[in-house]
Amino acid sequence: DFMQACWDIEEVQAKGIRHLASFVKDKSAFPCLLKCTEVIALAMKTHMSSLELQAEGCTLLLEILRQALEQGMMMALDESVASCLLHTVRKHSENEEFLAMLCTLLMMVSASEVAAENLRKVGIIPDLLSILRRFLRNDKICFSCCAVLWSLAVSENNADQAVLEGAVPVTCAVLQEHLLNGVVAESACSALWALSLRGCLTDSDYEPTAALLLDALRMNPERAVLVKNGCLALASLVRLSETAALAILLDSKGSGTELIKDEYHLHFEDQGVTEALCLLMNEMLQYDNIMRDMRSHKMEKLLSEIKLQFPFS
From which domain of life does this come (predicted)? Predict the structure, then answer.
């Protein structure tokens, strides 16, 4: 109440945020802190020029969200909070260290479908793409922004189709830059999967994107989630174009069919990975030329193994 009564006094807002932050370790205070997110966000928006207040407010929101997720709660932050966060992003778009924290906050917020939709409504996507282009080498920013893009792209709302199409080259650039960083590559593969499902790729994207996804699988073979989402993205591309299927087949770094076999044997107990591999094979088999190649690689034997491993799936 005191913060709301003194919106224009920066010192009041800063002290209020610090005082609220002193309660984060008190589990009994958590339900009350949940009700303060809008007040904190509005304080940040009102006093945008104070980087210290921005950082303290962002840290407090992160802690509240972290506790909420630990308790299995999804915080559906409303459109006014989403708008406040967007204003903060724009005001401090050059501050790499602060943006890394802010993008982590956006990623946690976007875990809620309602909050993700509110971020979409206020127009966050162009800002995310701009941040990725500017800080392509920052792994924390790339990881968080790709995760937010995934959340926004899986939405059924088609209002941002054109702007999401612009996300494809940026996401590919992130994956290319961070191929050896499993965490970031996993996030980028997930974003590419969602973008391919939305039909955001053009004919000229299929071959290079398929080759890039294969590189991600080769360089991070033991990361089950990356393998699963990478295969789902490839399956989506192959469904759309034989060019993508041929890119897998004729990849200059080795046969994609052999890579499928290697990944299955590495993750043969993981049903999610195996289902994604089966979906990819199923999409590839719609093309006669591909089918012949898969037979020459004895893929029927692999399918028999899978049937024995998962007889009830």
Answer: Eukaryota
